[in-house]
Write a structure and sequence with these properties.
alpha/beta, Peroxisomal Thiolase, Chain A, domain 1, five-stranded mixed sheet, four-stranded mixed sheet, 9 helices, 13 strands, globular, binds coenzyme A
Length: 332
């Protein structure tokens, strides 16, 4: 029999960052053979935030992380785990630069590359560092600028992707305490890597309809498995927190899990698909606007290129109110 865990990783802070510049469907329709109606009906997206030249992934990640640290009332963590598919350089990883800018000198810092599932993989990794006793506290950041991987003239990818960052602070706690991360379900299938790929130096290429089917199946199966592993009946879930890929995908996942409309958290209309940032960005915004309350039971699930997928559970903790959390980044 596995030994019961002696400690857990507990969420104690949340923050987010968005570039100030927005691109509407009308803006895209002026440049591409598309329309507001097509994009809205097929994806649920109206606007997305996009970084301008001069704003890096590290800029977004650092601002989200600084806000998360402030909300946790902390200046220090032992580890920085950054989920990103758009690091600022091929090497080194972007996390050490973020740690350094936060004044976290000598903290363990590394990137996790699992594209839109990256945040769930990073959360599992940071939880492992804490429960193994390697770190007492950690920042888990999701930051991406996938808009910059889309070809200017590609109407299949440009409407979908936006940029942003979100972050959680984790500390060591007791199993079952509010804020504790639940069991993780993680998986991959490299045979279908070609469905969403950006070769070195090239643009994103996507086979949308086939990806759509995989996303619905993998997210709903992983979410069901995570709820089962946590011992949570699906009817007890207060909010499904799915990666924001497409409103039709998240609705199909919610339908399969019988999650009622009021329990489906979403921000895709104004954010688009922000890849690894989407889940922590959504948590930050929903915490700031009161949709998330202490004690709410969350079922988190993600799917991304790779293919990769993951899910976990989380009881939302009581966090001090922090008005800055959902405001846009001041960078361009
Ligand atoms: N504007 C207008 N028409 C468009 C268009 C656009 N931006 N993009 C594609 N079309 C056209 C297609 O060419 C096709 O035309 P046809 O019927 O004449 O051949 C038609 O619209 C339908 O295209 P299709 O790709 O079948 O649409 P869809 O309903 O599957 O929606 C996606 C396309 C991309 C929105 C959808 O497949 C999707 O969201 N897939 C998952 C993508 C994703 O989440 N990726 C990230 C995973 S984390």
């Amino acid at each position: 029999m596995p030994e019961p865990a002696r400690c857990s990783a507990v969420v104690c802070g949340v923050g987010a960052s968005l570039p100030a510049h927005t691109v509407s469907n009308e803006d895209l329709a002026a440049q591409l053979d598309t329309s507001d109606t097509w994009i809205h009906q097929r994806t649920g997206i109206s606007h997305r935030h996009v970084t301008q030249p001069g704003t890096s992934t590290a800029d977004l990640a650092t601002q989200a992380a600084a806000r998360a640290l402030k909300s946790a009332g902390r200046r220090h963590v032992d580890a920085v785990v950054l989920a990103t598919a758009t690091p600022d350089d091929q090497l080194p990883a972007t996390a050490p630069a973020v740690a350094s800018r936060l004044g976290l000198h000598e903290a363990c810092a590394f990137d996790v590359a699992a594209v839109c599932t990256g945040f769930v993989y990073a959360l599992a990794t940071a939880t492992g560092l804490i429960t193994a006793g390697t770190a007492h506290s950690a920042l888990v950041i999701g930051a991406d600028r996938l808009s910059h991987l889309c070809a200017c003239d590609d109407r299949t990818t440009r409407p979908l992707f936006g940029d942003g960052a979100g972050a959680l602070v984790l500390r060591r706690g007791t199993p079952g305490e509010p804020g504790s991360t639940g069991p993780f379900i993680l998986g991959s299938d490299g045979e279908h890597a070609g469905l969403l790929r950006a070769p070195h130096g090239g643009h994103l290429r996507m086979q949308g309809p086939e990806l759509f089917r995989h996303a619905v199946t993998r997210m709903s199966t992983a979410a069901q498995a995570a709820a089962r592993a946590a011992g949570w009946p699906l009817q007890d879930i207060d909010h499904l927190v799915p990666h924001q890929a497409n409103a039709r995908i998240t609705n199909a996942v919610s339908d399969r899990l019988h999650i009622p409309p009021h329990a489906r958290l979403s921000n895709i209309a104004d954010r688009g698909n922000t890849s690894a940032a989407s889940i922590p960005l959504l948590l930050s915004e929903a915490s700031a606007d009161g949709r998330l309350q202490a004690g709410h039971r969350l079922l988190i699930c993600a799917f991304g290129a790779g293919l990769t997928w993951g899910a976990t559970t989380l009881t939302w903790p009581a966090l001090p109110a922090h008005p800055e959390r959902s405001q846009p980044c001041t960078t361009t």
